[in-house]
Design a protein that fits this description.
The chain is α/β, with parallel strands linked by helices. The protein folds into two domains: 247 residues, Type I PLP-dependent aspartate aminotransferase-like (Major domain) (Aspartate Aminotransferase, domain 2, 3-Layer(aba) Sandwich); 120 residues, Aspartate Aminotransferase, domain 1 (Alpha-Beta Complex). The chain is built from twelve helices and 13 strands. The strands form three sheets. The chain has a seven-stranded mixed beta sheet, with helices on both faces. It has a four-stranded antiparallel beta sheet with strand order 10-11-13-12. A two-stranded antiparallel ribbon has the order 6-7. The protein is globular. It starts with 10 loop residues before the first helix and ends with a helix. Bound molecules: pyridoxal-5'-phosphate (PLP).
Length: 383
């Protein structure tokens, strides 16, 4: 059985978690969350990190915070790829902005770079990049367009922890970025997500929005200013902005601190597997679109066929061999019932090829040469 993900929690992670539970009376967001945020900032190479309860919450807070910080009016447009996780798009809609879809390319699975400029209007304010399945987008190309039109660049790195663009970790190339620590990702806090930025005032908005908009969530050094500014309101319940409750817990942060210690190793194993996978795929290179991008941090092993019949054949053979498969993220989002009104799916031809002819299987630290050899045998047998 080759599952998408297995028990990623190490014995030492579980031991540290139970030690923590037995040594504390405080389980809600506190010192462990702060510790995990500090450790993550060090690993990621950013100034500020804010731990939330999912990658989706991180994306929603990022867009909401950026909209408020830059005073972006309602109905402004956000450039998004036709293939990404669905909550990236709903976050745009929920913050009263308008997603404008751009087709993808079938190499690094980010935007079709030549189509971005055509989608820009006088109302465009943000380009929301997704680094899909661990393949870094070409940030230089995107940033040169963003600079030309004075647009804000945001990075969703929920599937790409540790990927590099031009030697620098992705997530550090725009104004802010997001990560997911859901079970199947490069490391886990079971459920969880992170927001990163180098801008202190923006990070303050992230901190406020994570927890109802409460002023007391800010660093202690900032409390007096607000106590003096609003003397008629009890500081314990002083709300500075519109917020959510997207806090995470000390338990999840404890797992995060432990998992982070393994992350570089997990990424190295995933990447070694991916390099071998690319060599195996060379066996059928005339039948597929080869997904690759320098600096990758592999999320999964994707197959995008030129012919749908080949996809069907291989996917059913994988099922027979108990190899779990998934569509490549949400497929062509314009085909999803919830986004139909945003465009005609057939106008996004690469996204549609991925939708109809693609799927992926798991890559993680449990994938080894034995499994990869089996994969090779299956490919040889089927084609
Ligand atoms: C690209 C991308 N962005 C955002 C998310 C949302 O993360 P979460 O599942 O933690 O809400 C996911 C989820 O897998 C994702 O793949």
């Amino acid at each position: 059985m080759w599952k998408l993900q297995e028990n990623i929690l190490e014995k030492s992670d579980k031991d540290k978690l139970s030690d923590f539970i037995n040594s504390t009376d405080r389980f809600t967001q506190f010192k462990r969350v702060k510790l995990f945020e500090n450790e993550w900032s060090k690993w990621q190479g950013c100034k500020y990190s804010t731990f939330v309860n999912s990658g989706s919450s991180a994306v929603l807070v990022m867009i909401d915070g950026v909209k408020e910080y830059y005073n972006i009016p309602d109905n402004s447009e956000v450039i998004v790829p036709a293939v990404t996780w669905t909550t990236n798009i709903t976050s745009v809609i929920q913050t009263k902005l308008k997603p404008v879809f751009v087709d993808i390319n079938l190499k690094d699975l980010s935007f079709d770079y030549d189509s971005i400029e055509k989608a820009i209007s006088a109302k465009t304010r943000i380009i929301l990049i997704t680094h899909l399945i661990g393949l870094p987008a070409n940030i230089a190309k995107i940033k040169s367009i963003a600079e030309k039109y004075n647009l804000i660049v945001l990075e969703d790195c929920c599937e790409s922890h540790g990927a590099l663009f031009e030697g620098k970790k992705i997530g550090n190339h725009g104004i802010a970025s997001t990560f997911s620590f859901y079970w199947g990702h490069h490391m886990t806090t079971i459920e969880g997500g992170m927001l990163c930025t180098d801008i202190e005032e923006l990070n303050d908005l992230f901190i406020l929005k994570r927890s109802h908009g409460l002023a007391r969530e800010l660093d202690l050094s900032k409390h007096d200013v607000y106590k003096k500014k609003y003397p008629d309101i009890d500081f314990n319940f002083l709300f500075l902005t519109h917020g959510y409750n997207f806090r995470n817990t000390e338990l999840h942060a404890t797992i995060g601190v432990e998992q982070l210690k393994h992350l570089d190793y997990y990424i190295a194993v995933r990447n070694t597997n991916y390099e071998k996978f690319i060599k195996i795929l060379a066996l059928i290179e005339d039948k597929i679109y080869m997904c690759n991008s320098k600096g990758f941090s592999s999320f999964c092993l994707p197959f995008i066929f030129k012919d749908k019949n080949d996809r069907n054949l291989l996917q059913s053979r994988f099922h027979d061999n108990q190899i779990e498969t998934r569509p490549i993220i949400s497929g062509n989002l314009l085909r999803q019932p919830c986004f139909k009104s945003y465009g005609n799916y057939s106008d996004f031809s690469n996204a549609d090829i991925l939708h109809q002819n693609g799927f992926y299987i798991g890559n993680n630290q449990f994938v080894n040469d034995e499994r990869l050899n089996k994969l090779k045998d299956i490919l040889k047998e089927v084609f």
